[in-house]
Amino acid sequence: MPSKSPKSFSNNFLFFFLLIFLLTGQGFAASGVATYDGLLHAIRETRAASEARIEAAVEQEKVREAWETGKLIDEHILLHKQRADYGEQVIIKLAGDLGSSETELKYMLQFARTYPIRPSTDELPWGHYRELLSLNDEKQRTEIATEASQKRWTQRELREEIKRRRLTTTEKSPAKLPEITPGPLYTYPIIRLKDRLKIDLGFGVYHDLSDKDTKKFKEGDIVTLEKGKLKKADEALQPTAPFLGAETVVLAQPAQVNLYTYTAVVTQVVDGDTFHALIDLGFETTLAQRVRLRRIDAPEILTSDGKDAKALLEKILSRNHGRIILQSHDLDQHGRPIADVWVQGKSIDQELLDEGLAVRISE
Questions:
Q1: Domains of the chain from N-terminus onward
Q2: Phi and psi at residue 321, in whole multiples of 5°?
């Protein structure tokens, strides 16, 4: 019997290989829908893949909608920032008219404020961004968001990581804040505004000098209000002065005076570092103002830690029936005054730090 040539063997092998390919490759593709069970399975897989793509697209639109809605609300509130509590009122009204929840609208507003530039909608779903809003440190928030995206964390996993990071940050914060004392009450600079001398009360509020006082004082003078009369700070300030009947504090020399220090009554606590108060500016002028604490940062109110921080701040500020000493320093990015606050002669920041419900802001 003649043996097969190498060429004949090669041809037979190629034929056999092609037959196997048809059966295992294209043949499998065809057999996937050749039976009813195969057809049903293939359609279910197609539907699942489609639903996954639709869900991803919906999540991307949720992020876009949340940011754009928050941006619109923020722009509207800024146009009416002179009206106390307007932001709260507009949120309540919008929730009713839109059939949405106040909490969700507050998240959207906070989202737009936290991210001035809308994040890429394919990075994380809306639920993840809601969790990230509890982090006030921008660098830390960006790091965690990147890691969450890369590792495809669930919302629960992200929440646990945020909690761990916050506890670590709190532990690293300095144990004690520097001791601070308020400046003398009702002490103001004399400024020139539209060719007239005025008393700068802070917060964008100015009081006209009487004709008599215009002759007595000049631009740049520091004056204090004592029993309804103005005096130069170096004439009026004594080495010590009573402080709400609780303690005695040493007053600074005129050149070192901390201005815009007033008595106030707290009317509402917003969160762990923000509240509303009626501030007595002197000259029979009372200002309703939203104020933020200067040296600490509390978790956002929508988190469990944020709610605990708010409860503690409410407790602290109610100790003297809401009466406080407030010293304004500057405005934050939302136009709110940032201030130091004392209750019964004691600065209130440290207690929130000690309870682990706030972190220190670098000065």
A1: 41-172 (1.10.10), 176-363 (2.40.50.90)
A2: 60, 35
Q: Alpha carbon of 197 to those of 3, 219, 300: distances in Å?
A: 120, 7, 42
pLDDT (tens, 9 = 90+) of the chain, 363 residues, equals 444 454 454 555 455 444 444 444 444 444 567 888 888 888 888 898 888 788 777 888 889 999 999 999 989 988 887 675 677 788 888 988 898 888 889 889 989 988 888 887 667 889 899 888 877 778 888 889 999 988 989 988 988 888 777 656 555 555 678 888 888 899 998 888 878 888 988 887 888 888 888 888 888 889 888 877 888 876 444 333 333 333 323 333 334 467 889 999 999 999 999 999 999 999 899 999 889 998 888 887 877 888 899 999 999 999 999 999 999 877 665 566 789 999 999 999 888 888 888 888 765
- As a 3-state breakdown, the chain gives helix, strand, coil percent values, each rounded to 5, of 45, 25, 30
Helix (H, G, I), strand (E, B) or coil at 316: helix
CB neighbour list of residue 321: distance below 8 Å, 6 or more residues apart: 265
Which DSSP state fits 221? -
- How far is 42 from 30, CA to CA, in rounded Å? 11
